[in-house]
Every structure is written in structure tokens, then in C-alpha cells.
Q: What sequence folds into this?
């Protein structure tokens, strides 16, 4: 090696080594960058903690002054009376009734749509249908409320019986057809080939006749119902169900897709039909993710304010019977939004603090649902090995 080559080699070797000062600067910059990223990531967590702190701080004075018994067990909601009463049982039941109705609308339709998008419809059709469903999430809630109040409520009040009759056919007929096909497939799949087709058609004819009779009887009974007020729990439940539909469809479809192609091919290789693969393999494997989708949809319905404020009727009463969806109800979110402007914020009256007590109940319920959905998603990932 010539002297010039040795000098060049020694210069390159020294350039790869960092001085002690440079290493300290590099370590300090790494710690500073990691700390900055951690602070940015923790902002949402601190925001949640601050929300919990401030709502709890303003909710506790109400329980200290009024106690828990009247708030959770009484139906007397008279916050502006000379002797105010803050019984919120009817408001809790109204929230639960509306949420239950929204779940009955969104969950069956959402899971069925998710299964169709994942395993039934062609890919080209899925690319068109899914964005259309997700577009429902982009519509402002005040637009939904305006539709529920101006369009849907008058129709429900004047033509309620006929609308319920038509709705029973529109919802019941596809569900009945799907159930008949699946049940016939499951019951006749193990029969010998020469008799399978005849037995399947015979069974489908019998089940179809029974389903038609049931839907006809249900439609006749619903057609005679008179709706006294269009602003009721049914109106709000249907609209909330439509609003929660994109959440349920999107999360459930992702959970079903996450089960993987290998699971489907393994099921088909063992001789299972498409119905058996969906019902006995795919849906059980994705059950935790589907449960998370249902919980997120329920949370969407529980937290909605504008629609329930505009179209629920805002009557602090328990329907008679309690499951009567055709009577006006009042919900927690509508009460908070409607009474906050009239509460005495300056002196911190009980009417002011009871709204924070309601908000605390909503927050705890949403927090519990969120934890349950996270548990469901993690369980699904462990099942599919991801």
C-alpha cells in the first residue's frame, strides 16, 4: 500500500467514528424527538382525563345535595318548579328505548350487509355499494333531524299504520327468504344427491308458506295501529339506526375480511357449502369484531343529540307499556342540550349540576362500551393470529 493510499484509508476510517460530543448530541436529539412524539400521542389521553375530571367535578355537588335515590328511581322531572325534583328514571328509560330501537334497525341490516359485501357480492359491486353506505356517515346530524321532524314525523302520524305494514313486508320478506334458503340448505345438505333437490324445494315451499302467513298476520295487525304523534321513539330509532348503519357495516365487514382467505379455503376443502362456511366458520371467527361493531353502533346512537332533540317529542315519561315505541320520550342527550341554556351557571344550582350528573352517566357508559369494543378487537386478532 502506497503512502497516499494509507492516508486516504486512514481519513475514511476516522470519518466513520463519532466524537464523544457528537454521540451525546445524537442521543439528546433522539430523547428529545421521542419525548415530543410521546407528548403528541398523549394529547388525546390527557384530553379524556381532563373531560373526566371537569364533568366529575361538576357532577359531584348534585349527588352531595340531592343524593342518588331520587335521581335514579324517581320519574318526577320538574327542575324549574318552586320545589324542584330531579327524578331521571324516565329519561334513562327513554335513552335506553331509543338506543334499543336503533340497535334493532342497525344491527341486523348492518351485519347482513357486511356479510354480503365480504362473501356474497362480486368485487366490482362491492366497490360501488360500500362507498354509498359509508356516505351516510357524512350527512350532518341536523339534516337527519330535519328530515325526521319535517318529512318522516307527519307521514308517521297520518299514515303510521300503513307505513308499519309496508315496513314489516320490506324488512320481513328479505329476512324470511334468506332464512328459508339457509335453513333449507343446512337441513338437506346431508341427504343423498338424488333426493336432495326435491327435499330442498319441498322444505322451501313449506317454510315459505309459513313465512307468508306470519308476515300477512303481522301486517294486518300493524295496519290497524293509529299513531297519535309522529315525534316519538319509533321515529328517532329508525333515523338513529340509519345513522349507525355505516359504523356497523364498516367495522363488521373489516372483521369478517380479517378472518382471512385460508379459513374459507380450509372450510371449502372439508366439503362445507358457502352457507355452512359463513354461518359455522366465518361468523364465529369474526364474532368478537362483529360485537365491537355492534358496540360502536350503539355508542353512536347513545351519543346522538340533534336528532333526538328534534324528533323524540321530549316528554319525560315512561311509555305505557314501557316498550311502546309510538309514544314520545326524552333522552339524556336531549335533556342536556335543551336545559343547559336555562340552568343557573353563575350560582351553580342543582339544575346546573344535574346535567353534569347525566353527562357523567353517559361518559361512563361510553367508556365501558369502548373498553368492551377494544377487548373484542384484540380477541379477534388473537383468533386469526395477527
A:
Amino acid at each position: 500500500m502506497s503512502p497516499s493510499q494509507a492516508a486516504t484509508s486512514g481519513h475514511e476510517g476516522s470519518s466513520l467514528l463519532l466524537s464523544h460530543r457528537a454521540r451525546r448530541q445524537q442521543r439528546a436529539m433522539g430523547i428529545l424527538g421521542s419525548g415530543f412524539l410521546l407528548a403528541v400521542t398523549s394529547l388525546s389521553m390527557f384530553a379524556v382525563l381532563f373531560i373526566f375530571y371537569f364533568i366529575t367535578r361538576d357532577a359531584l355537588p348534585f349527588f352531595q345535595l340531592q343524593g342518588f335515590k331520587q335521581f335514579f328511581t324517581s320519574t318526577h322531572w320538574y327542575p324549574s318548579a318552586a320545589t324542584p325534583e330531579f327524578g331521571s328514571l324516565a329519561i334513562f328509560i327513554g335513552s335506553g328505548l331509543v338506543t334499543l330501537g336503533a340497535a334493532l334497525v342497525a344491527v341486523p341490516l348492518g351485519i347482513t350487509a357486511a356479510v354480503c359485501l365480504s362473501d356474497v357480492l362480486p368485487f366490482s359491486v362491492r366497490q360501488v355499494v360500500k362507498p354509498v353506505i359509508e356516505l351516510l356517515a357524512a350527512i350532518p346530524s341536523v339534516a337527519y333531524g330535519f328530515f325526521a321532524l319535517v318529512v318522516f314525523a307527519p307521514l308517521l302520524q297520518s299514515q303510521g299504520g300503513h307505513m308499519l305494514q309496508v315496513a314489516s313486508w320490506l324488512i320481513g320478506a328479505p329476512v324470511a327468504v334468506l332464512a328459508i334458503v339457509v335453513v333449507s340448505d343446512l337441513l338437506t345438505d346431508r341427504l343423498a344427491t338424488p333426493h336432495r333437490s326435491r327435499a330442498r324445494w319441498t322444505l322451501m315451499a313449506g317454510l315459505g308458506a309459513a313465512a307468508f302467513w306470519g308476515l300477512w298476520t303481522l301486517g294486518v295487525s300493524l295496519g290497524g295501529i293509529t299513531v297519535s304523534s309522529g315525534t316519538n321513539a319509533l321515529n328517532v330509532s329508525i333515523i338513529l339506526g340509519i345513522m349507525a348503519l355505516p359504523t356497523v357495516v364498516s367495522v363488521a365487514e373489516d372483521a369478517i375480511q380479517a378472518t382471512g382467505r385460508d379459513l374459507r379455503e380450509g372450510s371449502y376443502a372439508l366439503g362445507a357449502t358457502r352457507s355452512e362456511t359463513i354461518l359455522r366458520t366465518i361468523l364465529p371467527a369474526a364474532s368478537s369484531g362483529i360485537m365491537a361493531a355492534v358496540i360502536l353502533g350503539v355508542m353512536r346512537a347513545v351519543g346522538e343529540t340533534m336528532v333526538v332533540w328534534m324528533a323524540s317529542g321530549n316528554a319525560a315519561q315512561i311509555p305505557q307499556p314501557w316498550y311502546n315505541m309510538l309514544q314520545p320520550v326524552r333522552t339524556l342527550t336531549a335533556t342536556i342540550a335543551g336545559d343547559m341554556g336555562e340552568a343557573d351557571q353563575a350560582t351553580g344550582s342543582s339544575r346546573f349540576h344535574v346535567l353534569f350528573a347525566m353527562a357523567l352517566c353517559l361518559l361512563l357508559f361510553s367508556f365501558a362500551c369502548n373498553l368492551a369494543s377494544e377487548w373484542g378487537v384484540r380477541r379477534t386478532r388473537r383468533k386469526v393470529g395477527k
Summary: Confidence is low (pLDDT under 50) at residues 6-14. The beta strands are 77-78, 85-86. The CA atoms of residues 24 and 249 lie 52 Å apart.
